[in-house]
Amino acid sequence: MNFKLTNHAKEKINQRGIRIEDVEEAIRNPDKKALDRTDERLIHFIKKFQDRHLRVIVKRIEMI
């Protein structure tokens, strides 16, 4: 899956010390996936890393 980080995502990743490799792993191999409750375009990818969970929210775009 190709993805592009928003400025907001980049800021939060830096603030929280999250490795980009962990973001990629959460998207490629999530422990759980869930649809967003309010926006059907959003998918939540959840991955456990040691004693913490990483939730990556991805907005689907339609490719023409």
| Largest sheet, strands/sense/barrel | 3 strands, antiparallel
Q: Give the amount of beta strand, in percent.
A: 25-35%
Please provide the count of β strands.
3
Helix-residue proportion: 25-40%
- What general form does the structure show? globular
Low-confidence stretches: none
Compact overview of the structure:
The chain is of the alpha+beta class and 64 residues long. The chain has helices at residues 7-16, 20-28, and strands at residues 32-35, 42-49, 52-59.
What does this protein look like?
30% of the residues lie in helices and 31% in strands. By secondary structure, it is an alpha+beta fold. The protein has one domain. A 3-stranded antiparallel β-sheet has the order 1-2-3, with helices on one face. β2 and β3 form a beta hairpin. The radius of gyration is 12 Å and the shape is globular. The two termini are 16 Å apart.
How are the secondary structure elements laid out?
Elements: H1 7-16, H2 20-28, E1 32-35, E2 42-49, E3 52-59
Antiparallel strand pairs: 1-2, 2-3
